[in-house]
Amino acid sequence: MSGAYEFWKKWEKMLSQWQLQNTAAIVLESGGVFNILISQIVYLAQPLFSEIKQQEIGALADLLQDAEACTAFASYLNKDVDR
Asked: Distance between CA 23 and CA 29 in Å, rounded?
């Protein structure tokens, strides 16, 4: 999980550009089994990306499998929205 932290700022920036911070936070907080399913799809897609992107994709998949990490990232997104 610790590998995902390095990508949080990058992901937050991308989500804010698309104005999807709130939506992403809601999905992360309430995803449950759905998050695990999405993480498996992300793992399957990993070989389609460059090696550098594979690290980021793997970190995203790891985050989606960890309920506490999903909640922490959702809180991170919500704090950034409040600023």
From this structure: 10
